[in-house]
Amino acid sequence: MNGIYYYLIAFVIIWVVALIFKNKLSNHGFEIDFPVIMWRTERLKGLIKRISDLSPRFWKYFMTLGVFVSFIAMIYITWLMVSSLETITTTPSVSIIIPGVEMPGSSIYVPLGYGLLALASVLIVHEFSHGILACSEKISIKSMGLLLFAIIPGAFVEPDEEKLKLSKKLSQLRVYAAGSIANMSLAVIALVIFLIVASYAIPANFSENGIEISRIVGDSPASEHLHEGMIIKSIDNHNITDSKSYLSIIGSFKPGDNVTVGTDQGTYTLTLAKNPNNSSVGFFGIQASKHFVLKSNSFGPLPWIYFNLLELFQWVFTLNLGIGLFNLLPMKPLDGGKMLEVLLSYKLPEHQYKPLVNSISVIMALIIIVSLIAGFL
């Protein structure tokens, strides 16, 4: 069964339970009003306040720099979105990412377990950072919690909006920028850990020995014959001994080519399809990774955990960076739209900057919607 069905079944159960026990759940901080379920709590406010009180001056200085980084990132991600219109029919720039689900139009598959852990890191770091900066700016937090918009989960920190609006514009910018800057900071930390594990820990304990099929794309040429765990030995009589020999041959085929793939479990002939990202290149439907063997001087099976760490931090990096940048798009209700509104309010009156931000928001939303539709088609 496609992973999307498991999600849908889970969300149907959640909504049925929520609606049946609506009155009882409302006594425990839940607000249920379709299509939104919100759970509010004040239990973690003290923790956020303690983290903020460790060094309010540091958080302010760090996020002042973060404001400048955020606007640079906003320009960059906006340019990427607009420039992607040229290739939107062949390589859509936006797709929905759901852990454990193959989404049409997306070349990225996020494993269920690692994906959920990475998404949890995105939500926790993002919302906690909003709260920490709000406390540093002497803006009280009303509540925090989790939400479900139809089938889209999320989290929130709810500062006192009146105090936030009355605070200095720089303070507002710091609070709005905090979430994405925290995500991008965590992405950098995850990347450093990833590189240390990949460059030092794994080579010290393992040696490369061929290419292993780590995933087969559903309904692809490879799905009819190959499966995960196979070791690729040859492709069309070209010996595959490592990642270099694999990459040198894999992109040389065209759609419709009949290609012989030799594995440790037999030899198979595939008729290649069109690559979703480049219709002129043949598509196997294989995601491959280096195959390693444990060195004789390594201690027991413990070093294999390095591969779990490698994949976990890969997705922590990817999702924190991607979602952090996406959140800086100049469109409301994203933080980027709120930051743009505050920036324009320095020079423009409200009746001018609000319609301008709303217009930009509509344009960005249309680009996203068109890109998503193009991906599905």
Can you tell me about this structure?
The chain has 377 residues and is α+β, with helices and mostly antiparallel strands. The longest helix is centred in the middle third of the chain and has 37 residues, at 169-205. The protein starts with a helix and ends with a helix. A hairpin with a 2-residue loop joins strand 1 and strand 2. Strands 5, 6, 7, 8, 9 and 12 form a six-stranded antiparallel beta sheet that branches. Helix 7 (169-205) packs antiparallel against helix 9, helix 7 (169-205) runs antiparallel to helix 10 and helix 10 packs antiparallel against helix 11. Among the domains are: 35-187, no CATH class; 206-303, Pdz3 Domain, CATH 2.30.42. It is globular. It has eleven helices and twelve strands. The model has no long low-confidence stretch (mean pLDDT 86). It has helices at 3-20, 22-26, 45-54, 56-83, 112-136, 161-166, 169-205, 243-250, 305-326, 335-344, 350-376, and strands at 30-33, 36-41, 141-149, 152-159, 206-216, 231-235, 238-239, 258-263, 266-271, 273-275, 278-283, 286-294.
